[in-house]
């Protein structure tokens, strides 16, 4: 009579993957793999971006999603779409991205351009203007150039003598107010 083999617990799937992995931190990756495996078994794994879009589509319905896309293409701002449909900006943007809708740039408001120009001409760096106004640095830089503000060389340190023209009849202090008006007329 043959003896039954003694069953010993073998290495887990995580141990095998970690043993053959070429990651620099196998212990850390082993813990991450273990957590992923446990989450997958428990069904608590965080959904990926595609499943989030599917869930949003399912919640809103195909007609509503089509209306959001059509309204955006017609020029309605994302903030208005958010308010109309009770969804987050991220949700709106994910729906538009999933439908391959090209995003349009939102120009700064005339008051924001004037404020940015005054701050920059007073000697603040673009980075400080960006931080103070809570706007992207590149948006501010591009808008100031379009408005005719003379940019300082990189790393110029302190301010140049500001040459702020007096306000015109509309209250604009920038050299290219007409360009600014055309930019805002498009949006």
Q: In words, what does this structure look like?
A:
Helix content is 57%, strand content 0%. It has 187 residues and is an all-alpha fold. It folds into three domains: 13-42, no CATH class; 49-98, no CATH class; 110-186, Orthogonal Bundle (Arc Repressor Mutant, subunit A). The longest helix is centred in the N-terminal third of the chain and has 17 residues, at 26-42.
C-alpha-based Rg, rounded: 28 Å
Q: Write down the overall geometry.
A: elongated
Mean pLDDT: 76
The CATH architecture of the largest domain comes to Orthogonal Bundle
- Indicate the low-confidence ranges by residue numbers: none
> Quick one: CATH class of the largest domain?
Mainly Alpha
The helix/strand series, from N terminus to C terminus, equals HHHHHHHHHH
| Tally of strands | 0
The structure class reads: mainly alpha
Beginning-to-end CA distance, first to last residue: 88 Å
Separate helix tally: 10
Helical content band: 55-70%
In short:
By secondary structure, the protein is an all-alpha fold. It contains ten helices and no strands.
Q: How would you summarize the topology of this molecule?
A:
Blueprint: H1 13-19, H2 26-42, H3 49-60, H4 62-73, H5 78-85, H6 89-98, H7 110-121, H8 126-133, H9 137-146, H10 177-186
Helix pairs in contact: 1-2, 3-6, 5-6, 7-8
